[in-house]
Write a structure and sequence with these properties.
With about 270 residues, the protein is an alpha/beta fold. It has helices spanning about 30-40, 50-60, 120-130, 135-140, 145-155, 170-185, 190-205, 205-220, 240-245, and strands at about 20, 65, 70, 75, 85-95, 105-110, 165, 225-230, 230, 235-240, 255, 260-265. The chain has two domains: about 10-160, Mannitol-specific EII, Chain A; about 165-265, Helix Hairpins, CATH 1.10.287. The termini are far apart.
């Protein structure tokens, strides 16, 4: 399904009126509520309660804090347009259960339309590229006012993933695999919860990605393999050195050229 999404910069979805320069909230949920109030006021979302519930469910599944003092809470629900964005800055920092245990100072909230499953991946690819740069993050943290923060975010260019790399959250796809395996042995009372968790992840990923995942699961019983010491654990074949280096420490998803399974960085390998 093709999207009408043609924008090439983050500012195509963000206006200064959608930025809170000094968040009042002291915890993650209240900060998200504060940002949702902005989207309601701008008439970019209709039902705050529904959106908030979906975001909280997503946070319980896995924190959307990316590390380095940045969080990217999001939900796929009906919006008045294709996408709704709000940004908040906290001077003191907010606990978001980040993987690096650091408080979050920049929150980028994204709500996108269910009819556009690939849109979040498109946006995440562009954001992640910039947020990985220490200099860019310092510009966000060091912004003295709303317009300086808006100016920095306006420079974020959006880029589609390369064909051999699917920009997404590798840990989410691995978690989906764990849930699908649990579902095969789950009792009736556990099934509803597991199905709800699986549905949240599926809504966030590209339709083509999920379709490939399901076909691999049906054929092999698993679809995602870790890369450990440069070897794909799905087929025990060495991965090209350059690709292995790219995977290590990354949260992107790659495809093994030999067995066709998705590859993610090993959880056991730590530098």
């Amino acid at each position: 399904m093709k999207s009408s999404f043609k924008s090439s910069y983050f500012s195509d979805f963000l206006q200064p009126s959608q930025i809170i320069f000094n968040l009042k909230a002291k915890d993650g949920i209240r900060a998200i509520e504060e940002l949702l109030d902005v989207l309601v006021k701008q008439k970019l979302i209709k039902n705050k309660k529904v959106v908030l519930t979906r975001i909280i469910d997503r946070e319980r599944l896995e924190s959307t804090a990316l590390g380095h003092n940045v969080a990217l809470p999001h939900a796929r629900v009906d919006t008045n347009g294709e996408i709704a964005v709000a940004v908040g800055k906290s001077k003191e920092g907010i606990n978001f259960n980040a993987v690096d245990d650091k408080k979050v100072h920049i929150i980028i909230l994204i709500i996108w339309n269910p009819s556009l499953p690939g849109l979040f991946n498109h946006l995440f690819a562009g954001l992640a590229k910039f947020l990985r740069k220490p200099g860019f993050r310092q510009r966000l943290f060091g912004a003295k006012n709303k317009m300086e923060l808006f100016g920095a975010l306006s420079e974020v260019a959006l880029s589609l993933p390369q064909e051999d790399t699917i920009i997404s959250r590798g840990s989410l796809l691995m978690k989906l695999q764990e849930i699908e395996i649990k579902k095969k042995k789950a009792k009736k009372e556990q099934m509803k919860k597991l199905k709800g968790q699986a549905d949240l992840i599926r809504e966030e990923l590209d339709e083509a990605l999920v379709d490939r995942f399901d076909r691999l699961m049906e054929r092999y019983g698993f679809a995602v393999a870790e890369v450990d010491l440069g070897v794909c654990q799905g087929c025990n074949i060495n991965v090209a050195t350059g690709l292995s280096s790219a995977i290590e420490g990354s949260n992107d998803i790659y495809v093994c050229e030999n067995c066709g399974k998705f590859m993610v960085a090993s959880k056991n390998k730590k530098k």
